[in-house]
């Protein structure tokens, strides 16, 4: 059974006619690209093509202006379901335009490497539930203050010192393999002198001990 709205199901918000909403006015837009024409025919959904048309260079430019990602200050692009390569490429195209974004959420997008991306004004970045394995795969974020990396696959703390000269105050690494590294908290705080909170816990006196000094009292007495 086809609903009247079915012909719009794969259109992006800026492909719908007769509105002037811009990207920087949206806080949680759906930006993934729809299936290709070949895929739609394969699915038996060719009826959705009737709203599609060939776009001119002028229309492409007007669409870019309407997206207006350059002026987005706060944006949630989580749960985009980027199952195809062309969808991921379009997603990264949008990220590259976020030159003024200050708060950005990219939760659960199966992201693996954003090292080519620079977010010069970003102060808060949430990339929980992705597939990062190293700090080196994160974007360049020189103004970062709050960074959340929970539920990725970061194995070691190698590369964390790249954030040493940033104003990073809060870091979340919960449910990453590196969390189980010996003297984990001491190592993190020694690498990031400006850090005030790790995994939701404020910096404690014992976190300030040099990471190479072992605690003297690590004996278990059995009576």
Q: What is the string of helix and strand elements?
A: HHEHEEEEHEE
Average pLDDT taken over every residue: 84
**Secondary structure category:** alpha/beta
Residue share in helix:
10-25%
Helix segment count? 4
Unreliable segments (pLDDT under 50, ≥5 consecutive)?
214-221
Give the biggest sheet: 7 strands, mixed
Strand content: 5-15%
Strand order of the largest sheet: 1-2-3-4-5-6-7
Between the first and last Cα atoms, what is the distance in angstroms? Answer: 74 Å
How many strand segments? 7
Rg from Cα? 22 Å
Net shape: elongated
What does this structure look like?
This protein has 223 residues and is α/β, with parallel strands linked by helices. The chain has 4 helices and 7 strands, in the order ααβαββββαββ. It has a 7-stranded mixed sheet, covered by helices on one side. The chain is elongated. The termini are far apart.
Question: What's this entry about, in short?
Answer:
The chain is of the alpha/beta class.
Topology:
Elements: H1 37-43, H2 57-67, E1 74-76, H3 85-95, E2 103-105, E3 124-126, E4 146-148, E5 170-172, H4 184-191, E6 197-198, E7 201-202
Parallel strand pairs: 1-2, 2-3, 3-4, 4-5, 5-6
Antiparallel strand pairs: 6-7
């Amino acid at each position: 059974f086809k609903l009247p709205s079915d012909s719009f199901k794969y259109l992006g918000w800026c492909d719908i006619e007769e509105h002037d909403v811009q990207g920087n006015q949206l806080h949680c837009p759906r930006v993934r690209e729809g299936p290709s024409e070949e895929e739609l025919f394969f699915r038996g959904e060719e009826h959705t093509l009737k709203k599609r048309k060939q776009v001119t260079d002028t229309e492409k430019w007007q669409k870019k202006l309407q997206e207006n990602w350059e002026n987005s200050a706060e944006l949630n692009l989580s749960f985009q379901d980027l199952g195809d390569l062309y969808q991921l490429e379009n997603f990264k195209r949008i990220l590259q335009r976020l030159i003024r974004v200050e708060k950005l959420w990219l939760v659960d997008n199966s992201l693996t490497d954003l090292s080519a991306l620079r977010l010069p004004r970003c102060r808060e970045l949430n990339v929980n539930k992705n597939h990062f394995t190293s700090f080196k795969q994160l974007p360049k974020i020189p103004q970062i203050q709050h960074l959340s990396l929970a539920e990725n696959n970061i194995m070691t703390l190698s590369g964390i010192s790249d954030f040493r000269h940033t104003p990073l105050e809060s870091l979340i690494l919960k449910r990453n393999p590196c969390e189980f590294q010996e003297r984990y908290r001491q190592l993190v705080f020694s690498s990031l002198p400006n850090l005030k909170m790790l995994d939701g816990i404020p910096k404690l006196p014992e976190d300030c001990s040099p990471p190479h000094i072992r605690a003297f009292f690590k004996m278990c007495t059995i009576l």
